[in-house]
Design brief:
Elements (H helix, E strand, L loop, with lengths): L2 E9 L5 E4 L3 E3 L8 H11 L4 E9 L5 E9 L27 H15 L9 E6 L2 E8 L2 E7 L7 H7 L8 E4 L4 E5 L4 E2 L5 H17 L4 H6 L7 H15 L5 H12 L1 H9 L6 E3 L8 E3 L4 E3 L6 E3 L5 H6 L6 H15 L5 H25 L12 H16 L1
Parallel strand pairs: 1-5
Antiparallel strand pairs: 1-2, 1-3, 4-5, 6-7, 7-8, 8-10, 9-10, 11-13, 12-15, 13-14
C-alpha cells in the first residue's frame, strides 16, 4: 500500500474552523490508523491534535495518496486559509465531533476511578473511523483500552459480558452510548500464528459456539444481527437488488440462480445437523491475541446469530495455504465430537458462497449507517463480495 500525505483542517473545541496545516508525510498507509498522524503533527508542527474524522482523499495514482482529516486543537494557531465547510450530518458519530473524544476520555477516567485506577500518562489515540474510535490509556506498566463504536455495533459489550470468564476481553465498563473500556491483554496479535496455535483458535471458537446452542433467544435479546436462513436470504436478496446494475450480465445471472435456490440450500445445510448459534463474524487469526499458552478472541462487534461455520471462510483466508486442510479437518473433528452424526464438511461446502454473500450484506449495512464522507472506506465492497460469490457459485456448478 502507498504512504500518506496528511493535511489537517483544524477546529477548536467549540467547532470553530482555524484553518489548514501544510501537508506532511506519514509512512503508515491505513487511513484509520491515526497514532502516526498525531505523532507526525507533533514532530513537524509542534502541535498536539486529536483526529476527529476523514474529510477527503485525493488519489492521483502516485506512490502517495493525500488524505485530509478534521483535527481538534485546544486553541487557535497560525494556519493556512481553508475554503471548505464543516456541515452537520445525522449519521456523524459523537467521537467524530469536537469535544467528543474529550468526553469519551473523561468517561473512561471515571470508570478507572471506580476500579481504584488512574491514567499515569497522556492517552494515546490509536484509530478513528466510521466503525470505531480506539485509545490506549497508560496505567503504570499496563494500559486500558477505550473503544467507542456506532450504535449498529452496540451489542459488543453485551456479548462480552455474557461471555465473561471465557477467553474474551475483560470488560472494565461500558455505557449505552457505545463506549467500552477493556483491560489490557498480554501477548501479541496472532497474525503470524503457528499451526498448533491455529488449531487452538478453532477449538476455542467451537467451545464458545457450542455453549450457545439452544440459546438463540438470549442472543436476540442483545439485539444481535440475525443471519439465520430466512433473515439472511432477505438481506442477500436486498443487497443484490441494490447493486444489480454494477454487476456484469453473467454475474447477475449466476447470483439470481443462487438467490432463488437459497431456501433449498439452507434446507440442505439444516440437514447437516449443526444448529444456529453465536457467530463471531470476523474470526481470523489477527483477532486473537495472546501467547504460546493463552489466547483471547477479540472484536465481538461484528458478531451475530447464524450457522457456526459462517466463521470458517474468513479464518481460512487468513492462514497459510499449506495449513488449510489440517485446520479444516480439525474443525470438522471438533464439531463431530460435540454433535455426533453431524456433517460439518458438507455444511461448510454449502455455506461457502453464503458466507461470502454475507460479507456483501455487512458492508452494505456499514454504508447505510455512515456519513457519505466516510463511504470511501467501504465503497465497492458489497459489489466485490457479490462478484466473489458469483465466482464461487459458477465454480461449483
Amino acid at each position: 500500500m502507498r504512504s500518506r500525505i496528511i493535511r489537517l483542517v483544524l477546529v477548536t473545541p467549540d467547532g470553530t474552523v482555524v484553518g489548514c496545516l501544510p501537508p506532511i508525510p506519514v509512512n503508515v498507509p491505513w487511513w484509520q490508523e491515526v497514532e502516526s498522524v498525531v505523532r507526525a503533527t507533533r514532530e513537524h508542527h509542534g502541535l498536539e491534535v486529536t483526529i476527529l474524522r476523514l474529510l477527503q482523499v485525493a488519489d492521483d495514482q502516485s506512490d502517495q495518496v493525500e488524505v485530509t482529516y478534521l483535527a481538534e486543537i485546544g486553541e487557535p494557531v497560525q494556519a493556512e486559509v481553508w475554503a471548505g465547510k464543516i456541515e452537520p450530518h445525522p449519521l456523524r458519530q459523537s467521537y467524530a465531533q469536537p469535544g467528543g473524544p474529550t468526553a469519551d476520555l473523561a468517561w473512561a477516567a471515571g470508570i478507572l476511578a471506580r476500579h481504584g485506577l488512574a491514567p499515569t500518562a497522556k492517552p494515546v489515540q490509536i484509530r478513528t473511523w466510521n466503525l470505531s474510535s480506539v485509545w490506549r490509556i497508560p496505567i503504570g506498566d499496563q494500559s486500558a483500552w477505550l473503544k467507542v463504536v456506532p450504535s449498529f455495533l452496540g451489542h459488543e459489550p453485551h456479548i462480552i459480558t455474557a461471555l465473561a470468564g471465557l477467553p474474551v476481553p475483560t470488560l472494565l465498563g461500558y455505557d449505552e452510548c457505545g463506549r467500552i473500556l477493556l483491560a489490557e491483554i498480554a501477548g501479541d496479535d496472532m497474525y503470524e500464528a503457528t499451526l498448533p496455535q491455529l488449531l487452538s483458535m478453532v477449538t476455542l471458537l467451537v467451545d464458545i459456539q457450542a455453549m450457545w446452542i439452544g440459546r438463540v433467544e438470549e442472543l436476540r435479546a442483545m439485539r444481535m444481527p440475525d443471519w439465520c436462513g430466512p433473515s439472511l436470504i432477505s438481506k442477500i436478496t436486498d443487497v443484490l437488488q441494490r447493486t444489480n446494475e454494477e454487476l456484469s450480465q453473467g454475474e447477475r445471472a449466476s447470483l439470481s440462480r443462487f438467490v432463488s435456490g437459497l431456501a433449498d440450500r439452507f434446507s440442505e445445510i439444516d440437514a447437516c445437523g449443526l444448529p444456529n448459534t453465536l457467530v463471531h463474524g470476523d474470526c481470523h487469526p489477527g483477532n486473537f491475541r495472546g501467547t504460546e499458552f493463552a489466547l483471547t478472541l477479540l472484536d465481538w462487534g461484528d458478531s451475530g446469530i447464524g450457522h457456526p461455520l459462517l466463521d470458517q471462510p474468513a479464518f481460512l483466508d487468513g492462514i497459510p495455504p499449506e495449513h488449510v486442510k489440517t485446520v479444516k479437518d480439525h474443525w470438522n473433528h471438533q464439531w463431530s465430537a460435540r454433535i455426533p452424526g453431524c456433517a460439518p464438511a458438507r455444511a461448510a461446502d454449502l455455506l461457502a458462497p453464503v458466507a461470502t454473500a454475507r460479507r456483501a450484506v455487512i458492508y452494505q449495512h456499514f454504508l447505510d449507517n455512515i456519513e457519505p464522507s466516510e463511504h470511501i472506506y467501504h465503497d465497492g465492497d458489497p459489489v466485490d463480495w457479490l462478484r466473489r460469490t458469483a465466482a464461487l457459485v459458477s465454480k461449483s456448478g
